[in-house]
Write a sequence for this structure.
């Protein structure tokens, strides 16, 4: 079908309009459905008892006093719940040999990270559950903790002694072996003789997704189906995991993700808390609710990033790149999370980025430590890769003494070279790096800022100016199922949609994507309105409930529009196909004579026609349909993408560095992204802005820091520095458009672009500001202290972060967000 | 997260509050604005049996002119102090420090006396109070006593206020006509200062006649940078002069090391921020 | 238990509460005012911001008993207590400027933005950004939130009499 293209000229298209969001009417008036808002008759409340130790044997748990506390219904340990608690699964073992510790929601004999749950208290109110949790007496035997990637990989201290090693899996891609390029070691050897070799080690610090809505789960076991409400990105995958690991038939489980307050990958998880709530509700036969505190969220919801990257880039004397070798250490934390080790592997295809490397090798060692588990955080693997390559291209430019944009242009894929098969084996369908870069430079005032930089250097101004470049691409729209299969991922990458034509003229659209702030209800309405020729207001988008959206693979990896949106297009087209014989019958015309446009079937060459909604009404009454016809024009479609899509863009950042204090002030940030055709420019801009700040925050502010004993020092928003409005600037955002060729809307993902691109742009700018002072790297986050010490020549990259927090919430000698390790026995530490 | 259970008393006079303190002793905790105490209670880092709310004692609120000093009631909210014309005229350093203290909501609720009594060395009010030579009026069972700022701050979260006493008001000697600046250094806006410098300066023409400088978060209590003050007296307010005086800022300080910077970095910061604060206060 | 009397979103309410109950918990659990949310336990995030006696406060950092006798306006009562109309101009501006995504920080952002504009009807961008420093948002990057406040300020400039009248 080509319904959209056939629409008569003059009819206003929904696609491309800056529609105000349908979602907002509720959200701006407080009419919301967060999981924590739910209250059910007889509902009980859970509080978790969490380990203050990073690694300890559980000698005994005394629940007597807690069980006797007012209004306590039960106090349960891992032993009590036994098999009923199921297990937290790793859906992506990246190698057949991967070492994967069993992850019970409540372990019975040993805790492997500070914050791990050792018991759950059930009471009539949340306050009473918390009170009683303080009374659970756990006898721990402190064990040595494996903390820090470089220490852990030596296996001197084991995170899980029974496994015999901390090394979980080693994954390699080699272009010579794969037949996609040459031998990287040869390229490097040659460059050492007569070219340029740039070698760097970069730290991808540990981050915390820090969605604003703390996770919450409600389980109601009183119906025939057990209903689970959860603040999750993945209701469908959660249902699968609950069924697969507890023995409860999948058909007996309904999972609902109601209003969900942000995720950024952080709610892409099957969590111990969900499993425990499910087990307790089944055991007690009553609805239960658990809502985490922010402190609990920061210490136990999965973290992101955490890599050491050793990179070797080879180039000839003119700066043409000849090879790239990547060696990663990636911290899994205490367990291999649902996508866990797969996250760095997602970066394997992106280190080569937009450049024509003839030889490439990617090596990744995943490592278990006694810290909070890690998994996807906005960008998942691709920010790490983009940071690595974009920092290296700047270093190559510095080596050559040329402008960083010049060295990029020399090596990037030219627009006439698409489609282009990369050294990592991906086929980039479309792109135009020249156009995006030209537009970004124009917006930025590149030459003027370079002139100011020169002036400040010459005047030895205490405030120096730096300009940072990032010309990024990413693979998004997870994902072709076959590709996932070839990587040993445990599920597919398709998406499902259905379109229901209601008798009164409105349309229900069901999507398997599960929004948590992205604006699907608005953007998907725009797509369907155009496709079916119905008013935007007539379309209702339903999602996030496995009983309504019975098939789906949820929302992550910038997939909702490019995969879920395409499924929607196909379902809508099927509706038109199904309606056509009905329309022909009602118009007493031949199907061949009908055209469909603007919501109407028209008999060619006549003024006779019938609206699609009229056909829907006819299908409802079913009084006058073709003989033997099934009385429905509803349709569904499942779409499996044939390829990823590859948004790209050029980001330019100017920062002022106060060389006296190391303070960084952002002066200007512009970006020009090519994300193909845009459905709703307002929503797209919002995605870019938010992504930018998350990426900038990695560069400048955020870091999850553990002390030597494995206590999370940055365990509250006092010390985990999420930026505020006062720390950020307004952005200049524009787009060039090269439509994607792999979906019918020509769209590309935009959810992660800002985050992926901005981090290296900012760090490149900071380094650029002080490079003339002898600095060639500053470790993230680029704190004022690190910047200042780098200028003082205290070392490359500056010092590691001190493992101590400011003691603002000191209370009677007890510091931090939990009791301190050091005693053999401690009462249950709350959060 | 909810605090552990406690009993709640809301006296309406200082005498009632003192009587409640006398009765409950160690088991009681005073709550002023609660902006620092409530997070502590919520995270159960402290669990008093009785919370005595000073919020209903009207006599603890307000700002008045008392001749050579202005007097700020302990329960006066930051937002009132920060916009008060008397304070702005006679103790501009306080106005400058309050402007960027925490955030707007906390300034609406948090109180001048509560913040000082909490004695967080990273709190924004200690250094200005010290620099201005504030006097702390403390009521106790035996009557009222006045403690000079030098003796008020004892240690981390510890002041001269006894277990059975209540801070009722703070007298700030008038520094009418003095220039003032609070130079606060943070990584993100909602942080406590990594280091901050409170400087107030009386100039006579181009010469610095008097200077008083307080340091935030450079030790377990706010500090006076007396070496800098002395080095500035009688000097011209020029960048070079102030730079060499400010180099003495960290003399005798024992700053903490934490996520935001180690002690050496803080020492260095204090010299830069002192120079900037003094120059700004001197209008140079 | 302590008896408290308040006016919340224009309605008089009275309840016996535990002294330890936070104002936000009282609003959510006792009054069903779930529009106001809890985002942290250190009072950094500002998601729980409401107006208490005419100024913005973080309702997670106030005990319900401390608010006894007070007048509280939440996101749910903002429009009705403004002029009985459909939306407060700041609410309208957040929608118009796409100043929200997931919407979790939005009640606090809107309540703080209205308080900010009460105190400073024509703020500069810097004043807006500083005025919102007690509210965290993870979705928008603040860009459109700042725009929304500017938009609301522009709207208000034509009807400052009305604007000044609301709490």
């Amino acid at each position: 079908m080509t319904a959209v293209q056939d629409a008569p000229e003059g009819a206003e298209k929904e696609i491309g309009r800056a529609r105000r969001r349908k979602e907002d009417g509720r959200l701006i008036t407080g009419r919301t459905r967060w999981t924590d808002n739910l209250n059910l008759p007889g509902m009980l409340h859970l509080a978790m008892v969490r380990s203050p130790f990073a690694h300890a044997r559980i000698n005994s748990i005394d629940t007597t006093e807690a069980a006797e506390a007012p209004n306590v219904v039960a106090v349960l340990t891992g032993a009590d719940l036994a098999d009923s608690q199921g297990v937290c699964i790793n859906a992506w073992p990246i190698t057949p040999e991967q070492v994967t510790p069993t992850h019970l929601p409540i372990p019975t004999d040993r805790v492997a990270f500070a914050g791990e749950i050792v018991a759950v208290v059930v009471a009539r109110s949340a306050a009473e559950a918390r009170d009683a949790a303080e009374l659970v007496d756990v006898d721990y035997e402190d064990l040595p903790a494996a903390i820090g990637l470089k220490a852990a990989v030596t296996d001197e201290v084991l995170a899980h002694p029974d496994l015999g090693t901390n090394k979980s899996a080693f994954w390699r891609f080699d272009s010579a072996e794969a037949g996609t390029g040459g031998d990287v070691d040869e390229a490097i050897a040659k460059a050492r003789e007569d070219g340029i070799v740039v070698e760097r080690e970069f730290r991808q610090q540990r981050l915390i997704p820090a969605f604003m809505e703390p996770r919450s789960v409600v389980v109601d076991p009183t119906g025939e189906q057990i209903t689970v409400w959860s603040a999750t990105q993945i209701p469908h995958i959660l249902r699968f995991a609950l069924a697969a690991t507890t023995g409860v038939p999948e058909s007996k489980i309904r999972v609902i993700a109601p209003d969900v307050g942000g995720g950024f990958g952080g709610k892409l998880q099957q969590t111990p808390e969900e499993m425990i709530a499910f087990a307790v509700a089944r055991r007690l036969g009553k609805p239960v609710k658990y809502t985490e505190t922010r402190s609990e969220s920061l210490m136990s919801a999965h973290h992101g990033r955490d890599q050491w990257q050793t990179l070797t880039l080879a180039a000839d004397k003119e700066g043409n790149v000849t090879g790239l070798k990547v060696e990663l250490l990636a911290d899994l934390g205490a367990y291999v999370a649902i996508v866990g080790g797969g996250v760095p592997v997602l970066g394997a295809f992106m280190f080569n980025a937009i450049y024509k490397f003839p030889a490439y090798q990617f090596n990744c060692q995943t490592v278990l430590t006694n810290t909070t588990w890690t998994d996807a955080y906005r960008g998942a693997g691709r920010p790490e890769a983009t940071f690595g390559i974009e920092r290296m291209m700047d270093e190559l430019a510095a080596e050559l003494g040329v402008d960083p944009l010049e060295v990029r242009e020399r090596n990037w894929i030219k627009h006439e070279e698409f489609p282009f098969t990369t050294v990592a084996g991906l086929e980039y369908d479309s792109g135009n790096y020249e156009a995006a870069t030209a537009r970004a430079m124009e917006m930025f005032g590149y030459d003027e800022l370079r002139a100011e930089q020169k002036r400040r250097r010459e005047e030895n101004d205490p405030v120096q100016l730096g300009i940072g470049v990032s010309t990024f691409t990413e693979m998004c729209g997870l994902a072709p199922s076959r590709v996932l299969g070839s990587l040993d991922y445990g599920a597919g990458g398709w998406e499902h949609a259905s379109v229901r034509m209601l008798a009164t003229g409105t349309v229900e659209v069901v999507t398997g994507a599960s929004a948590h702030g992205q604006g699907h209800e608005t953007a998907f309405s725009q797509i369907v309105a155009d496709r079916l020729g119905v008013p935007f207001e007539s379309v209702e988008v339903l999602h996030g409930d496995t009983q309504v959206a019975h098939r789906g693979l949820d929302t992550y990896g910038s997939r909702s529009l490019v995969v879920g949106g395409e499924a929607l297009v196909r379902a809508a087209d099927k509706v038109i196909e199904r309606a056509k014989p009905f329309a022909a019958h009602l118009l007493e015309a031949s199907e061949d004579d009908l055209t469909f446009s603007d919501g109407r079937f028209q008999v060619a060459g006549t003024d006779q026609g019938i609206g699609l909604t009229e056909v829907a009404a006819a299908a409802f009454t079913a009084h006058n349909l073709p003989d033997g016809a099934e009385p429905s024009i509803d349709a569904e479609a499942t779409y499996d993408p044939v390829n990823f899509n590859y948004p790209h863009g050029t980001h330019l950042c100017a920062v002022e560095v106060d060389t006296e204090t190391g303070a960084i002030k952002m002066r200007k940030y512009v970006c020009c992204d090519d994300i193909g055709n845009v459905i709703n420019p307002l929503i797209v801009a919002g995605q870019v802005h938010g992504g930018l700040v998350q990426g900038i925050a990695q560069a400048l502010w955020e870091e999850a820091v553990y002390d030597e004993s494995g206590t999370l020092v940055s365990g509250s928003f006092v010390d985990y520095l999420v930026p505020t409005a006062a720390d950020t600037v307004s952005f200049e955002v524009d787009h060039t458009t090269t439509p994607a060729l792999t979906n019918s809307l020509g769209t590309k993902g935009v959810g992660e672009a800002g985050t992926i691109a901005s981090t290296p742009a900012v760090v490149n700018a900071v380094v650029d500001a002080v490079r003339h002072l002898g600095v060639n790297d500053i470790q993230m986050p680029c704190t004022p202290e690190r910047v200042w010490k780098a200028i003082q020549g205290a070392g490359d990259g500056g010092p590691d972060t001190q493992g101590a927090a400011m003691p603002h919430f000191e209370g009677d000698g007890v510091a931090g967000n939990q009791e301190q390790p050091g005693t053999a026995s401690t009462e249950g530490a709350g959060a | 997260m909810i605090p552990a259970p406690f009993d709640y008393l809301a006296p309406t006079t200082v005498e009632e509050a003192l009587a409640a303190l006398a009765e409950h002793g160690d088991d009681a905790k005073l709550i002023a604005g609660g902006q620092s105490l409530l997070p502590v209670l919520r995270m159960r880092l402290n669990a008093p049996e009785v919370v005595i709310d000073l919020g209903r004692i009207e006599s603890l609120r307000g700002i008045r002119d008392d001749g050579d000093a202005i007097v700020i009631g302990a329960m006066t909210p930051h937002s009132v102090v920060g916009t008060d014309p008397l304070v702005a005229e006679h103790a501009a350093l306080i106005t400058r420090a309050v402007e960027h203290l925490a955030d707007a909501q906390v300034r609406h609720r948090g109180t001048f006396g509560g913040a000082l009594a909490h004695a967080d060395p990273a709190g924004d009010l200690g250094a200005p109070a010290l620099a201005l030579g504030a006097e702390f009026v403390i009521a106790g069972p035996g009557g009222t006593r006045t403690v000079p700022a030098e003796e008020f701050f004892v240690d981390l979260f510890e002041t001269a206020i006894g277990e059975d006493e209540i801070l009722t008001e703070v007298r700030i000697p008038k520094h009418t006509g003095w220039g003032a600046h609070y130079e606060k250094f943070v990584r993100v806006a909602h942080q406590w200062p990594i280091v901050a410098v409170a400087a107030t300066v009386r100039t006579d023409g181009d010469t610095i006649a008097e200077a008083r400088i307080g340091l935030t978060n450079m030790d377990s209590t706010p500090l006076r940078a007396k070496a800098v003050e002395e080095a500035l007296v009688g000097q011209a307010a020029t960048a070079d002069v102030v730079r060499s005086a400010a180099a003495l800022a960290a003399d005798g300080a024992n700053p903490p090391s934490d996520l935001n910077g180690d002690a050496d970095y803080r020492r260095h910061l204090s010299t830069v921020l002192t120079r900037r604060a003094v120059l700004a206060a001197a209008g140079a | 238990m302590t008896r408290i009397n308040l006016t919340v979103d224009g309605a008089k309410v009275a309840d016996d509460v535990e002294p330890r109950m936070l104002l936000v918990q009282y609003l959510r659990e006792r009054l069903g005012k779930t529009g106001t949310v809890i985002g942290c336990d250190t009072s950094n995030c500002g998601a729980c911001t409401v107006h208490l006696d005419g100024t913005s406060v973080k309702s997670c950092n106030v005990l319900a008993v401390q608010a006894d006798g007070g007048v509280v306006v939440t996101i749910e009562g903002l429009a009705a207590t403004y002029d009985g109309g459909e939306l407060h101009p700041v609410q309208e501006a957040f929608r118009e400027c796409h100043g929200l995504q997931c919407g979790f920080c939005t009640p606090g952002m809107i309540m703080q933005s209205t308080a900010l504009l009460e105190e400073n009807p024509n703020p500069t961008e810097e004043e807006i950004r500083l005025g919102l420093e007690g509210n965290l948002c993870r979705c928008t990057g603040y860009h459109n939130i700042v725009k929304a406040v500017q938009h609301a300020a522009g709207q208000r400039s034509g009807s400052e009499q009305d604007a000044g009248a609301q709490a």
